[in-house]
Amino acid sequence: MVFCAGSSLILEVCRGIRFSAVTTRKILLEAQRNIRKKLSSEAILRFYKEIANLNPEIIRPPTKERLSQYDDIIALKDRHVLASTLEGKAAFLITLDRKHFQTEVIRKANLPITIMTPKEFLELVKKYY
Question: Which pTM was predicted?
Answer without folding.
Answer: 0.80
